[in-house]
Specification:
Length: 424
């Protein structure tokens, strides 16, 4: 049946009924499809608009939270290149914020000066204290250290490494922003007669083992193998509880997974902490840091710089003096008098033994960092006897040395000529 008129009282039968075909104008059908398409488009546009609004609201929220809580923008870059500096997903601080935090780099906030440039203390709007290393514009060495430090420490995270919070690269300014260590560096305590008392024996044990754990992370446990190359007392920072954190990675080198050692014609670092193979031939490895750690351990035991010498043995620096006492079974004479206690002797003997194992002349004879930590924690009970370390001879005039007021038998050398004496 075909019907072309109006439909009135159309009834649907339960048992079927005849089919009814209705003629509909083509224009009416096209209008319905058109409005369906319009409705669908409106729904899609509205949905996309909601998503975009939510995205922009989230960005605004993150930016606001970053400026107020972290003191830096949430801008991050997977690989930012400026003057050859690679920044791997580091928070970027605005120069104005750093300037305000340090009171425009006021000299009263200056913490120190290095090859990199000056270091300033600052405080972010959220109250967090920071340490800012500002690259000296005229320092080529500083630029190289800046690039190297960003490359190394931006990938590291350990409780015994100082934490990098971010950086600032604007115009000619290049700065690194670190967590602030309120107790400064280890040398400011270890070699200061007024502060030495705060470093009792148990605290020194914590410092020694903490440094070793940080080194183990650099050498074996991080995703990179890193040789610090400038481990010394002034590069160990202390937090509120005098826990140690290794700092200053400007001289550090990243090793490939199968690389055990490397050599360089440009020897960097601090004399007194350098092993002979590095000082003389430019060869460095994990064992180079182990040697530096051994020197540092002996300094912590004795409370004396490694360049200190003794009147009764004018030619002996700290390592040679420790070796002499070890062979005479008088190693307790090495202990800092401020913390001396006869009950410490078993620990002192163990720690001195480990220190002397670390400063053995041949790199192959020195233990690796993992073994050193096991020795310190008594996981390895029977320690091998150390072999003779490399000795240094000193030449100076009386005007070039300054005697310590604490002990008439100890002098600290300020200007000297070092000659490496090969052990036999």
């Amino acid at each position: 049946m075909t019907w072309a008129g109006s439909l009135i009282d159309v009834q649907k039968f339960s048992d079927g009924g005849p089919d009814l075909y209705i003629r509909v104008a083509h224009s009416e059908l096209s209008d319905k499809q058109y409005w369906k398409a319009v409705t669908a488009a409106i729904v899609v546009v509205a949905f996309i608009s909601i998503l975009l609004c939510a995205h922009f609201m989230r960005k605004l929220f993150l930016k606001f939270r970053g400026e107020t809580d972290a003191g830096c923008s949430e801008e991050r870059t997977a690989k930012h290149n400026m003057h050859g500096v690679k920044l791997e997903a580091l928070p970027l601080f605005k120069f104005g914020m750093i300037s305000n935090a340090t009171k425009k780099f006021d000299t009263t906030n200056k913490l120190g000066q290095g090859g990199f440039g000056p270091v300033f203390k600052g405080k972010l709007p959220n109250g967090q204290e920071i340490a800012v290393k500002r690259l000296a514009r005229s320092s080529n060495q500083g630029l190289e250290e800046f690039m190297n430090e960003v490359e190394v420490i931006s990938r590291l995270q350990h409780r015994n490494l100082v934490r990098l919070l971010g950086c600032c690269v604007e115009h000619e300014e290049k700065m690194l922003v670190y967590e602030y260590m309120p107790n400064g560096s280890l040398d400011s305590y270890l070699f200061d007669s007024r502060k030495q008392l705060l470093l009792d024996w148990q605290t020194r044990i914590v410092v020694i083992e903490g440094i070793c754990r940080g080194l183990l992370y650099l050498h074996r446990d991080s995703r990179l193998r890193i040789i610090h190359r400038d481990l010394k007392a002034s590069n160990i920072l202390l937090d509120e509880e005098l826990n140690p954190k290794i700092s200053d990675f400007g001289m550090a080198r990243i090793f490939c997974c199968k690389e055990d050692q490397a050599n360089t014609t440009r020897v960097v670092g601090t004399y007194g902490y350098m092993p002979p193979e590095y000082a003389l031939r430019g060869i460095f490895s994990e064992k180079s840091d182990v040697y530096s750690f051994g020197v540092l351990l002996l300094e912590i035991l004795s409370g004396r710089r490694n360049t200190s010498f003794y009147h009764e043995d004018q030619q002996l620096f700290l390592i040679a003096y420790a070796w002499k006492l070890w062979n005479e079974d008088k190693i307790m004479n090495l202990v800092d008098p401020i913390i001396y206690d006869p009950r410490m002797e078993p620990d002192v003997v163990r720690y001195a033994n480990v220190g002397l194992l670390c400063v053995q002349e041949a790199a192959a004879d020195r233990p690796n960092t993992k073994t050193v930590l096991s020795m310190l924690s008594s996981e390895i009970v029977d320690l091998p006897r150390p072999k003779q370390p490399p000795f240094t001879a000193v030449q100076m005039s009386s005007s070039e040395s300054e005697c310590s007021q604490m002990s008439p038998n100890v002098c600290s050398v300020t200007n000297f000529t070092v000659r490496i004496v090969e052990g036999r």
